[in-house]
Amino acid sequence: MAGEDSPMPEEAMVHVERPIQAGTWICCVPCYWLRRSKAVHKALLTFAMLLVTSLLVTSPVLFLITTLPEGDQPRDCAPLDEACIRERDGQEGVCETRACHEASRRMLAFLKRGVDPCEDFYQFACGGFRDRQPYQPSSNFGSLQAQVDDQIQNMLANASGKMTGAFYKLGQFYETCIDFKDKPVNFTPVYRLLDELGGYLPPKSLAPVDITPLVSELLRLNGAPLFDVYVDVDLYDRTRSSVFLDLPMKYRGDTFFSENQKDDGPRWRRAITLTDEHPRERRSSSTAESRAYTFIKNNMEEKRSQRILKIIDGLLPKKMNDKDKAMETEQLSQFCTALSKIYPRHKDLYNWMDVDQRVYVPYNLSRLQEEFGYIRWKTLLNATLGAATPNSHNKTHNRDLQDQNLLLDDDRFLCVYVTAPHYFHGLGKLLNRFSRRVVHNGLLLLYAADTLHDVVNVTASKNWNVSCSNMAKSMFSFAVGALYVQQYDPQYLDTIANRVEILFERIKETLAERILVKTWLDEETRMQALLKLSALTGKFHVWPGFHNESFVAREMAEVTIDTDDFFSTVMRRFRQIRSVSGEVFRRNASERFRHPYSVNAYYELSTNSIVIPIAMMTAWSWSWDGGPAYAAHATLGSIVGHEILHAFDLHHRGQSLDTDQLLWLTPKTWRRLEARIECVAKLYARSFWRKVKFFGNNVDVQFDWNVTRNENVADIGALQIAHETWQTLTNGKDRTLPGLEALRPNQLFFISAAQTYCSNMTAEAYILSVELDYHTPHPERVNGIMMNSEAFTEAFRCRANVRMNPSEKCSTW
């Protein structure tokens, strides 16, 4: 039996029936406060009026259906009338659909027998998970993204027969990329392109006075060794676009061309010793890098340095004597190393965002030029964002890049957001340390190493087919998005989006009810939060342009695929995707293209909306087709709740619905919120401390709970809100899955929520996750969410003070 010392029989599931503890009572101080507070009464009436009005305006069909007399209820329920469907099909019983049987098999395969859910819920829910299991239509996030990637790769290979018409050139690009694997590795095109960009400048040669032309040309060729530039919707004004100066593209090969190392982690052949001489004290936060991560990072840098040295050897003149070669190699290596060292750590970026609220700092052109004078910014932005010309591929950095006023006639038309100005200040100091000649050569070298290397060197990828698929998604994202979307019927996608929209509104309603009774909110903050929540929208419908092949044809019309010259094809496409029409700065920019194939939901600050891509919405659609309601609420409901709460998190505390107001939180309420967030950080610090086996040694993992607290607070609140929403809809009565009848719907809800995070991570991948991800690693993430849920404790009847039921719980929303 769970909780006892003796192991359970192998054939039995975990026995989850525990006696309800005596003496349980509920404190109803909030109820007393609700009855006495006139402000709350007024807010409740206002909110109720808004809710009823919204229902009448947005859902007249639902309103009419639900107000019919009981005897007149139609037997044929509307597709979105979940209450009618539940009444028609029965609120309880076993779901026998094919999708339910598949979900049951998956859930049973993931569960680990013999584990007490009150001691380690992640191991209970995910202990049986294996990456080698076949992908399921409603699997965890990692498997879901892998499934989507496989679908796209098969489509690009014309397995579906869709690579005709508007998609013909896309298929031709992928096929040309695949065929390129059979050709011998040849770096000659790379060095030829570097010569066109000014080429290597030997010692004592005259170097350009200004690096702006070269940096501009590299950006037009998708190279960003110093910094990146792109256009996106403005952070505060959704009707306009702005320019963003971002951090440089480090290791382009790791993101676009080669395998994703985040999942599996790098591996090395030699062993190391990483034992700690002195045991560390448990700390609530650690800003220092762990020794294991430092080793991993150093090995990645070493691998990149070896790549750079090989390119230097081909860049330097063959007739150069050994002494000059050694000196040049040393200078260029020092430049590359110095640039890498000023790149901000992930934890620094988080602290700048969380503490100082200064990751994206707005500049106009005058201030930008005054503060970062090592670049002629007006010239660079005009050259980089100006419309491409037909012969632009043959132009070099010596072309005329004087102030052309293509886009930037006046500071009033442009806002430039600088990502982490601290880095750009450090960049100016670094450039002053090296000669203009070394900087020129170094920029060419970094462009070749980080952008071009893996385009021509197919041996850099273990799976070239995957690399070609990733390259197609990066260079033809709109066309690939359309290809992915068009496998679904538009009406089906609309139905799914409408269902998620209803779920979204239910989640909002639950959160609004919670906001009304949260005692840490003062009245001013409460009203601001309700207003912001009321204005919050969801973007669930697919942009109609993805179903319009004429749009795709127009996008691909300018594309030229040279089946005999893959490198030139890539370079031409680089220039095309870097070209931006000047009209983009003056048109309404509220509509954005989002990648429908990405398994990544997010909160969009500029539009105060959340975005859920169809890859995630379709994964749990079976829950609405006769399946249990908890499946959609525990998964999609938690996702929706998580992203909604990001509208009220640490990073958006300074963003009000009204841009003239700086804060939606009053200072007093902000201090109260900080205390609740600190509760989460301290609880996680007390509860989680882990060593991992790394090259045969047990190595401490350096958690920084201050970095992850923003996501942890959203995780905890989202599950509570999703569960309450499901409980309100079903009153705890729901259908179960075949073979899992021994588990109550309330328990299946939490198992479903946990299994979205099942994963197998190597020690290297786990260490990288801790250092580079703002989310808590999956085992601690699941357990941390559950141990703060009273509903979870009740569902599994966990005894007081066991691991998953600590005496002190943290709750914000």
Can you give keywords for this protein?
813 residues; mainly alpha; four-stranded mixed sheet; three-stranded mixed sheet; 9 strands; 51% helix; globular; hydrolase; metal ion binding; Neprilysin-1
In short:
The chain has 813 residues and is mostly helical. It has 33 helices and nine strands.
Helix content: 40-55%
Strand content bin: under 5%
Radius of gyration: 29 Å
- How would you write the strand order of the largest sheet? 1-2-4-3
Structural class: mainly alpha
**How far is the N terminus from the C terminus?**
35 Å
Overall mean confidence score, pLDDT? 79
Written overview of the protein:
Belongs to the peptidase M13 family. It holds the Pfam family Peptidase_M13_N. One of its GO terms (biological process) is protein processing. There is one protein chain. Strands 1-2-4-3 form a four-stranded mixed beta sheet. A three-stranded mixed beta sheet has the order 5-7-6. Strands 8-9 form a two-stranded antiparallel ribbon. It contains 33 helices and nine strands. By secondary structure, it is mainly α. The radius of gyration is 29 Å and the shape is globular.
